[in-house]
């Protein structure tokens, strides 16, 4: 039995050697990924029209989708900002719903998807995109709720997709058909289809996904050696594509844990958990963190048993003092490793709590940042004004007429204020890129504002921006904008009168943007 177990572990070790080499080259793959991002970003910066910018932003969204949740949302925001056609707006909306369901487990995205009327979909290509998004969302739901109703809905979507599938997506068509067969119990047929498309697909992400599906099918056939082989292939391609939201290493670690190969299992689950944290994929935290704790506990138990065994050996072989000394050193190293494992678990728990707090306070941090920035900038401008008066007094005392002329001139201060307001406008629009569009949605047609050129806001929009970040008193707004309080009151009254909503709700809705 021991010999058979040893041979089995040797075979697994040979299978994993290639994966370990890929993991060692992680920095190289990340560098390649970053260079690809730079090229895509330069295309976005050089794009001259909104439509081209949207195309580049969509490319960045797809590139970041498996790597960083934060970056994916940033580029989704750019897609929302520059969408200029019905197709682009519809695709952007689908991406938003997909992130809600697949990444955040928020089922409101699925409700929004289900509420879309088929007649409102721009064309056939967008209809297949609509079905594809629905399949992804229902598949995510099916992983958490494998009820017959969810399964039937998922299968119905796959069947409908296959009836209207696009000719330019043969890989994806075959993938959906294979998944449809798998769910209907046609395991061998689904496996043959996935094996057929694996060597033909060059993209690492697609190869990783295909290999993972093949591993799942071998698992359903209870063919463990083949399942491990394809999980390794999936993990290799995930790492080569700089993906951070994969399941391959996670499942591989659990298999190694079941085979009592705790060191390897611990190494792979650590890597999986670290990638989930780096990519901010919070939906992966719980399962990976739980597996990490279970594997670590198993290692601790193994060490505890080994410590007991060594103690018995020390008693039985007391005459061999040199051997005893070496064994005691080994025990000390194991205990040190246990302490490190406990410290890692504590750090992970602290990071989980910190991540939850950051998510909960994100909006508050955003608002306080704008207010703090304004206060510091305004104090800086006021200090410049004070300095100008101080220098004029010095010039009087020294009798320098030329210095007096320069200091009496308010032109430099006006320029400083202009620069300050320009910085404020750019900062505010960077945080609220769709602010003008949402303001216009609250106003009648004749009162709506054109999109600001050069990100410079008119006085009316600056007043509304101040209200949005919490400055609501007309006197304070007037002080901030360096104008008379009656002017601020007049503008506020004018905009309330032009609102399509009740007047007393207008500014409340502004604060909710």
Model description:
The mean pLDDT is 84. The chain is built from 24 helices and no strands. The longest helix is centred in the middle third of the chain and has 40 residues, at 321-360. It folds into three domains: 2-261, Serine Threonine Protein Phosphatase 5, Tetratricopeptide repeat (Alpha Horseshoe), CATH 1.25.40; 262-360; 362-511, no CATH class. It has helices spanning 2-24, 26-46, 50-64, 69-82, 86-103, 108-114, 124-144, 148-163, 170-183, 187-197, 204-220, 224-240, 248-258, 262-278, 282-316, 321-360, 362-398, 401-408, 411-431, 435-441, 459-468, 474-481, 485-497, 503-511. By secondary structure, the protein is mainly α. It starts with a helix and ends with a helix.
Main attributes?
513 residues; Serine Threonine Protein Phosphatase 5, Tetratricopeptide repeat; 24 helices; single chain; 3 domains; mainly alpha; globular
What would the CATH topology of the largest domain be? Serine Threonine Protein Phosphatase 5, Tetratricopeptide repeat
Distance between the termini: 67 Å
Derived from helix and strand composition plus strand pairing, the structural class reads mainly alpha
Total individual domains? 3
Would you list the SSEs in sequence order as H and E? HHHHHHHHHHHHHHHHHHHHHHHH
Helix proportion:
over 70%
Number of strands: 0
Instruction: Give the uncertain stretches in residue-range form.
Output: none
Give average pLDDT, whole number: 84
What's the tally of helices? 24
User: From the 3D coordinates, which CATH architecture of the largest domain would you assign?
Assistant: Alpha Horseshoe
